[in-house]
């Protein structure tokens, strides 16, 4: 796999608490990757490690073949739009573009200007006076005008109304179509991920629960409903992702490459949201449950 991001046994501690522990992940190049998982799963920590804003406590992380903290040349290859899309409230939109120009060797001033004009943002307007949606668009513009090879977006649309969200994601998709760019986008809004991402990673308790191309994942996961059955009696090739039972009926979400011929089952497709929820719901392996370490 041609990976834009690879982590091995990656860990980050804040004080005595692990925010991310023993994390292994591969993010393939040339995709818009959706990163999803429960609160506290370690998504922001992973993305900040990838953007060089944090250094690992343990393990390794490689981004575009280099260490994220490997200096300004490496940082120039990565665009990062942090959670809450921070901008400098006291600076104008135009100031942000000038600052971007000064700080980034590959700055595409024409792209930045055109985007700002298309969005109808007044370059003289102070960023602190922009709406949440406009601020997010400004932050996305700064990320794109760097002309990065990898753009990382951490919950960029969480605070936006549905219309602003759609406009933001449309802008992102247009940029992906125009520039050769890999994207990692974290969000809790599965419907948004469904619209924008072609690759999905579900992260829970620092562990990748499932990763793959969205199309493949949806083609290989099925909901089986039928008379109550012990999970142990399902064929070996059907990996059970989730199971629920009533007195008479069992419902399984299974992953399998093979066709399901058992006439006892009613087989239906699942949505991306079903898939995400099924993997997020799986109990964490015991050794991954958060432990507060004590100092001796
Ligand atoms: N600056 C910090 N100091 C101490 N603990 C932190 C800090 N930042 C994150 N954590 C802890 O690290 C863990 C992982 O947090 P992180 O923000 O990476 O998760 P997340 O998956 O992005 O969550 P969310 O979906 O809520 O944004 C959480 O238990 C969190 O409380």
UniProtKB/TrEMBL annotation:
UniProt keywords, alphabetically: ATP-binding, Nucleotide-binding, Transport
Annotated ABC transporter domain residues: 5-230
Pfam family membership, one: ABC_tran
Keyword Nucleotide-binding applies: yes
The name this protein goes by in its record: ABC transporter ATP-binding protein
The keyword Nucleotide-binding appears for this protein: yes
Gene3D superfamilies: P-loop containing nucleotide triphosphate hydrolases (3.40.50.300)
SUPFAM superfamilies linked: P-loop containing nucleoside triphosphate hydrolases
InterPro entries, per the entry: AAA+_ATPase, ABC_transporter-like_ATP-bd, ABC_Transporter_VariousFunc, P-loop_NTPase
An annotated Gene Ontology molecular function: ATP binding
